Amino acid sequence: MTASLPGAHMREELHSQPQTWATAADLKAEQGLLPATGARVAVVGCGTSWFMAQSYAALRETAGQGETDAFAASEAFIDRGYDAVVALTRSGTTTEVLELVERIKGRIPTIGVIGDPTSPLVSLVDEAVLLPFADEQSVVQTRFATTALALFRASLGEDLTGAIADATAVLAEPGDDELRDAEQYTFLGRGWTIGLAHEAALKLRESSQSWTEAYPSMDYRHGPIAIAAPGRVTWQFGTAPEGLSAQVEATGARFEQRGIDPLADLVRLHRTALDRAVARGLDPDQPRNLTRSVILDA
Fold first, then answer.
1. Which of 6, 290, 20, 262 is nearest to 135 (CA)?
2. pTM of the model
3. Amino acid 1: pLDDT
4. Where are any strands of DSSP class E within 176-231?
5. Which domains does the chain have, with CATH numbers?
6. Where are the beta strands (DSSP E) in 64-136?
């Protein structure tokens, strides 16, 4: 495989995820830099990082670690008495994140979880958790996002052995042509997997210019199920509400759900997104209208 093939970087990076998760799980010192139990925390990011922030916030609060809110960096309500702000960014150059951290510097302790150790954010935050082994060349982000979430989960005391095994198994499977070629996709989640659903929808939009949507699972029946139809997919991350699969299947749509760790199921979506992009003659390493980092002019 060479980098000249469409999606070559994305393919290499998505297949490396079980190993990068294992590495993140072992980073005890870095996990120790994250907010302590009881701290009131805001987690901020943009795009994919915002969705991973949503998942971390739900996991941390559910684990009894303290109130945790997630915001898009451009729309963050920071002056609410937070004890710390966690800024998640692959590049460390995203304009909205840099502006937010500069604005609160000296007032609220900041912790950056960053892929690029040479980025300007490293010197702005009070503590930098660096994940250079998970940084990427592809514009479409896969392993940095999931590795950061693996780090967060490990910091909350979760054992990632099962998730790593599930992801390894998923990556060894043959492709699913019916799933790859669907007309439309809706992704659903509950609790911490709502962030995964939003990220899955974004991933397919970025990589293959596909029609995708995402909702909390229980809210899907309050209108969005109207678009379910033959040739379309409703994909549930984690456990589905009782009766939902039958309701979706009654529309003729495919209800997609696996009894595996939801983060590994996101890897399965990454694989589907790559296969769909390549089948459509697209290169997810250089998707239309996108760059690796959003840097706004002054």
1. 20
2. 0.94
3. 44
4. 184-189, 212-216
5. 8-155 (3.40.50.10490), 161-279 (3.40.50.10490)
6. 68-72, 84-89, 110-114, 127-130
